[in-house]
Amino acid sequence: MKSITSLHTHALPLLIILAILSSTAEAQQTTQSTTSSKQEDYSTYPDWNQSEIATLSAQWLGKLQPLPVDPSNRFADDPDAAKLGQTIFFDPRFSANGKVSCASCHHPEKAFTDGLARAQGIGQTTRSAPAISGVAYSPWFFWDGRADSQWAQALGPLEDGREHGGDRSFHAHLIHDDPTYRSAYEAIFGSIPDLSDNKRFPRQAGPLASDRKILDAWIDMSVEDQNTINRLFTNIGKAIAAYERRLVPGRSRFDRYVEALLAEDVSAMKTAMTASEANGLRLFIGKAMCVTCHQGPLFTHNGFHNAGVPFTEDLKKDWGRFNGVRKALTNEFNCLGNYSDADENDCIELRFAKVTRDETIGAFKVPGLRNVAKTAPYMHSGQFTTLAEVLEHYNTRPKSLIGHSDLLPIELNRQELQQLEDFLHTLSGPSSNDSELLQAPAPL
Ligand code: HEC
Ligand code: HEC
After folding, report:
1. Residue 366 DSSP label
2. Which of 41, 131, 142, 280 lies 20 to 30 angstroms, CA to CA, from 161?
3. Peptide bond into 377 cis (omega under 30)
């Protein structure tokens, strides 16, 4: 990387001149149109105009806002809840076979994903495990956004027969029966009601169980006893969310590059990124229009789009957000539900969620791109194995098999595709968290 410091040594004065010149006409242009004035030689190190600098300065981690509060989770920022949540996150006892934990599919050493196209727990899922560092910034969770809080999200895999394969009564009993979990839980959430009467509180019971016996056991419980289990179960989710909220990706070469650009330190810029990577960045925020969706320091605007990703042969058409938003609206664990700590007025996202067919059919959550070079395979069901395949998809823009694709023509040539791919590698960085947060914690 050092060798590129010899390139284009007059870039700093040029930058300053450009910044002055571009204050009028160019400042009014959007980032999309700036690169259409191109025909510059992409093999050289780019200079940036003012509008591009403005875009870049909004994309780096230096501009990451403080994490928004989660009014639906009173314990979201409680350090003891986070410690309990971290313990549960790494504990395989919360699974039907004693082998699956959240970390099985969201492994810290794999950028909090699993390296598989479709996640594998007790059984095979139909979707790809997303990297979860930084997702607390999003108002919606899962590829289809069917959960509107991180605690509601965490409850999903615990009861999913293909993931942890448990049911809510099983998980509640685990906390109740284990003295260590029990005292940690009670110190945060208050005393646990006595669940030892197995007639009232069957060891296995849940409304989502595919096993008829477990389902019937739930149906036979009184509403009040169901509520007791739900309360315990949702507090498990709230503790896990308190842990996950702390996970934030760390600075990458891209961030060092933007920091150097803002400080007009050309030599540091060149140390941070090669010419090809920097030209890829220019495409990302310009001609290739990636930044319209992969926007902000986490490289997502947190919305949903139909990117026309092909379906795999063995999976039926996935309606994505169309079903996801409907599930979120009817989820008993949503922001407006009995287990939420929020006020109705705090639930703006849920109350005003877009539901129309046009906007939701075949749409999926725009994933953040931090560490993307480390999180293959890609897309909601791992349809693409490499970044090159992803970029080929954006370039060819196949017709969406469901709804219509939101992708616009970008028509990149081979060299540009390579530059864009090179750029995506500069988003890899260490976690910003201490190593204690990236492993099973010391005993409670
Ligand atoms: C069997 C593998 C597996 C296990 C175990 C698992 N997950 Fe996931 N996780 C996934 C998959 C697959 C998705 C995407 C599912 C979907 O969108 O339908 C996902 C989605 C998520 C998301 C949403 C990310 C986003 O961008 O919206 C979070 C957060 C998350 N998991 C946390 C957890 C937690 C916490 C646990 C433990 C309670 C857990 N996961 C257990 C595979 C797993
Ligand atoms: C219209 C919004 C939009 C635009 C523009 C866009 N993306 Fe995406 N991107 C998405 C969505 C939505 C997904 C997930 C699609 C799915 O799984 O069905 C995605 C997924 C990805 C992924 C896979 C990430 C993962 O973890 O699986 C990569 C890489 C990616 N985009 C890069 C780019 C690049 C590079 C560009 C510019 C050429 C770009 N995107 C332009 C919306 C967009």
Report:
1. -
2. 131
3. yes
Residue of 137, 153, 302 to mutate, ligand 1, most atoms within 8 A of C-beta: 153
Asked whether residue 133 falls in the same domain as residue 267, the answer is no
Domain of residue 42 covers: 2-57+252-288
Shortest-distance ligand to the CA of residue 392: 2
Ligand 1 centroid – CA 110 distance (Å):
14
Instruction: Give residue-wise pLDDT tens across range 165-193.
Output: 999 999 999 999 999 999 999 999 999 99
* Cα→Cα distances 346→25, 151, 337, 350, 351, Å: 41, 16, 12, 9, 9
| 42 and 165 housed in the same domain | no
Residues 176 and 258 in one domain: no
For residue 387, the ligand closest to its alpha carbon is 2
**Which residues' Cβ are closer than 6 Å to ligand 2?**
288-290, 292-294, 305, 307, 309, 364, 366-367, 369, 372, 375, 378-380, 387, 390-391, 394, 406-407, 410, 420
- Which ligand sits nearest to residue 239's alpha carbon? 1
Residues with CB under 6 A from ligand 1: 89, 100, 102, 104-106, 119-121, 125, 127-130, 132, 135, 141-144, 150, 153-154, 157-158, 163-164, 240, 244, 365
pTM score, whole prediction: 0.91
Give the pLDDT band of residue 298 (cuts 50, 70, 90). very high
Could you give the 3-state DSSP secondary structure of residue 353? coil
pLDDT score recorded for residue 26: 34
For residue 378, which phi and psi values (nearest 5 degrees)? -115, 160
Q: What is the pLDDT of residue 24?
A: 35
Q: Is residue 86 part of a domain?
A: yes
Give the domain CATH number at 194: 1.10.760.10
- Do 39 and 136 lie in one domain? The reply is no
Q: Answer yes or no: is 312 within a domain.
A: no
Domain boundary among 186, 218, 248: 248
pLDDT (tens digit per residue) in 139-151: 999 999 999 999 9
- Best residue among 59, 113, 390, 412 to mutate for probing ligand 2's pocket (most ligand atoms within 8 Å of CB) is 390
Same domain, 83 and 231: yes
Is 242 among the domain residues? yes
Strand partners, 284: none
